[in-house]
């Protein structure tokens, strides 16, 4: 599934799932803009890719700020002449029971996940419509499908991403643009470390495969959805969770 002559923006590309996606795309010939609120992390990933003969650039972007998202898109087009693929990975997580959930935490999770995804998709679509081609891959979560205790705010915003994905897919299919979402289950990343070891142990017990997922488990699905092999696939949510369910 080669991505030769394709260019991608990957938000949250500085670590975990985003880094794995960037590396997998680069291994298949794609030029990558690695975007992250942590510029040092993004720059490190870009440097690794370039050292291995790929082509990547880094940019600091807060996806909750639409003006920064617009600058990210403009920068990618300036450097690569076009953007064919968008993967919205940027995310944050916190752990609160619903009764104890501060409004500020709800707004924070909303600003990064649902607002951030909206800003990215909204600002990349004119470029893709102009070129009559595009692959948009949102990263949602099984939490947005099943719900997750002590993460109602996170689950709710991932549900928003799922609805946005399905709706936008119907609108832009005529423009040769596909829009799909990968919904990971528990993945072994630094973000999930905030849940604590007891919660991570519980998640493993609830995952039939018997382990946490690896970032590459998600990256492989994104590679498929970014490639020509997925041209007949749009508006779909791909559960990459090792069979994880909430009883």
What would the average pLDDT be, to the nearest integer?
94
CATH fold title: Rossmann fold
Specify the overall morphology. Answer: globular
Distance between the termini: 37 Å
Largest sheet: 7 strands, parallel
Q: In CATH, what is the class?
A: Alpha Beta
SSE order: EHEHEHEHEHHEHHHE
Number of continuous helical runs: 9
**Cα-atom radius of gyration:** 17 Å
CATH architecture: 3-Layer(aba) Sandwich
Portion in strands: 15-25%
Structural class: alpha/beta
Helix content: 40-55%
Structural domains: how many:
1
How many strands appear in the DSSP assignment?
7
How would you name the CATH homologous superfamily? Answer: NAD(P)-binding Rossmann-like Domain
How are the strands of the biggest sheet laid out side by side?
Answer: 3-2-1-4-5-6-7
Point out poorly predicted stretches: none
SSE order and pairing:
Elements: E1 7-11, H1 16-27, E2 31-36, H2 39-51, E3 56-60, H3 66-80, E4 85-88, H4 103-131, E5 134-139, H5 143-146, H6 152-172, E6 177-184, H7 190-193, H8 197-205, H9 215-226, E7 237-240
In short:
By secondary structure, the protein is α/β, with parallel strands linked by helices. It has a single domain (7-239), classed as Rossmann fold, CATH 3.40.50.720.
């Amino acid at each position: 599934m080669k991505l030769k002559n394709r260019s991608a923006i990957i938000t949250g590309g500085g670590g975990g799932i985003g880094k794995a996606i960037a590396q997998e795309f680069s291994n298949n010939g794609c030029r990558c803009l690695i975007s992250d609120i942590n510029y040092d992390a993004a720059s490190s990933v870009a440097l690794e890719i370039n050292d291995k003969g790929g082509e990547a650039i880094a940019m600091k972007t807060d996806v909750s700020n639409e003006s920064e998202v617009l600058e990210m898109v403009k920068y990618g087009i300036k450097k690569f002449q076009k953007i064919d693929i968008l993967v919205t990975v940027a995310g944050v997580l916190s752990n609160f029971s619903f009764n104890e959930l501060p409004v500020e935490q709800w707004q924070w999770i909303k600003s990064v996940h649902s607002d951030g995804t909206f800003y990215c998709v909204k600002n990349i679509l004119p470029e893709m419509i102009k070129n009559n081609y595009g692959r948009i891959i949102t990263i949602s979560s099984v939490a947005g499908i099943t719900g997750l205790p002590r993460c109602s705010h996170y689950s709710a915003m991932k549900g928003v991403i799922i609805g946005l994905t399905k709706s936008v897919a119907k609108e832009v299919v005529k423009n040769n643009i596909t829009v799909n979402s990968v919904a990971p289950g528990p993945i072994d990343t630094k973000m999930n470390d905030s849940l604590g070891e007891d919660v991570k142990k519980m998640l493993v017990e609830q995952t039939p495969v018997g382990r946490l997922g690896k970032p590459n488990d998600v990256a492989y699905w994104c590679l498929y959805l970014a490639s020509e092999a997925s041209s007949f696939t749009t508006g779909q949510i791909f559960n990459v969770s090792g069979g994880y369910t909430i009883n």
